[in-house]
Design brief:
Elements lengths: L8 E6 L3 H11 L7 E6 L9 H5 L6 E2 L4 E3 L5 E3 L5 E4 L3 E5 L11 H12 L3 E5 L8 H9 L3 E5 L8 H10 L3 E3 L1 H11 L8 H13 L6 H10 L1 E6 L6 E7 L2 E6 L4 E3 H36 L2 H37 L5
Parallel strand pairs: 1-2, 1-8, 2-5, 3-5, 8-9, 9-10
Antiparallel strand pairs: 4-7, 6-7, 11-12, 12-13, 13-14
Helix pairs in contact: 1-6, 3-4, 3-7, 4-5, 9-10
């Protein structure tokens, strides 16, 4: 058994604006950094990924894992489209479980798996992005005695993700990218004061299985949470609610997971989709009534046209609701403190 542990597992998450910050961060890290770096950036599932090419810096090649493989110091692994990056005791694997916070890959999944497998050895970094993916995962890292780091919001191109992480997770450091690089260089060689933390986390991970699989997390929600009045936007199952300080989290039986803020945006999108369907049906009904009026006798024609005019009013109401809903979503995304 080793006498000490070092923070040699570095996990970095970002979204909008995160690529630029991440590239700057990697440029500032030395090629001989005694750590393994794992990265999750939000990317569309059907979008060809060029992230490894964009992130290969200072003589180190970033790449997507190939299924399941062992990792070592000096490597940079990047989550590919439509797959969670999951960190085990000595291997990195790809998971295709349910989306979390509407994303696969999700930052929370990577952070949580690292915390479970490596405990105090983890240094987790939240960079620029929208909404709050990464906040719950950062809390898991702190609970496992890992180091929680957030980019200075004033420096971030999209400051909501860093601000949410600060609000919910109370990180150990809030720094600009240049200072984050200096900190990572320092702590990757630091002897940890709690050498058994990582070992306990590893034992827990080996007993519980892959961090992405949901049975134990689902049990936590069932045991510590309560059924909410809300349905999952993706599968329409009941969402269970659990409070983690100021952070509200929701998870359905299948495993889709949301923070309260992400669920708010998901409901706005669900409402918009439903309104578009309703608008289509109403407009089709008005068009059909006018077509029937063309063929009807004079006595019934007026009835059809009057009914069609009523549906025109419904359509105008729905269009206004759609416009208001879209403006609300944009406004909430622009104001980090919006709830």
């Amino acid at each position: 058994m080793q006498n000490s542990w070092r923070r040699d597992i570095i996990v970095i998450g970002g979204s909008a604006g995160g690529l630029e910050a991440l590239r700057r961060l990697l440029e500032l890290l030395p090629a001989n950094l005694p750590a393994t770096i794992f990265v999750t950036l939000h990317i569309p599932a059907d979008f060809p990924s060029v992230l490894p090419e964009l992130l290969s810096r200072n003589g180190r090649a970033a790449r997507h894992p190939e299924g399941s493989e062992e990792f070592r110091h000096g490597q940079i692994f990047v989550a590919p489209p439509d797959a969670h990056l999951i960190i085990e005791r000595s291997r990195v694997v790809l998971g295709h479980g349910p989306r979390e916070n509407r994303h696969r890959p999700a930052i929370d999944v990577m952070f949580r798996s690292a915390a479970r497998a490596h405990g105090a050895r983890v240094a987790a970094v939240v960079l620029s992005g929208q909404l709050d993916d990464g906040s719950a995962g950062l809390m898991s890292v702190k609970m496992a005695q890992g180091l929680a780091i957030v980019q200075e919001p004033g420096e971030a191109l999209a400051d909501e993700m860093p601000r949410r992480a600060i609000q919910y997770a109370a990180p150990d450091f809030v720094l600009p990218v240049a200072d984050i690089a200096e900190l990572l260089v320092a702590v990757s060689s630091e002897k940890l004061p709690f050498p058994d933390t990582s070992r306990r986390a590893m034992v827990m991970e080996s007993k519980q299985g892959k961090a992405e699989q949901v049975p134990n997390e689902k049990a936590e929600f069932m045991n510590n949470g309560k059924p909410s009045a809300f349905a999952c936007p993706e599968c329409h199952g009941v969402l269970w609610e659990i409070e983690s300080g100021e952070l509200l989290q929701y998870r359905c039986r299948v495993g889709h997971a949301y923070t309260g803020d992400t669920l708010r945006v998901a409901f706005s999108e669900t409402a918009e989709n439903a309104l578009w369907v309703a608008l289509r049906v109403v407009e089709e009904k008005a068009a059909l009534l006018r077509r029937l009026a063309q063929k009807a006798g004079s006595r019934i024609r007026a009835t059809y046209e009057e009914e069609a005019s009523g549906f025109d009013l419904h359509a105008n109401t729905l269009r206004k609701m759609l416009s208001d809903n879209s403006e609300l979503v944009v406004r909430e995304r622009e104001v980090p403190g919006a709830a």
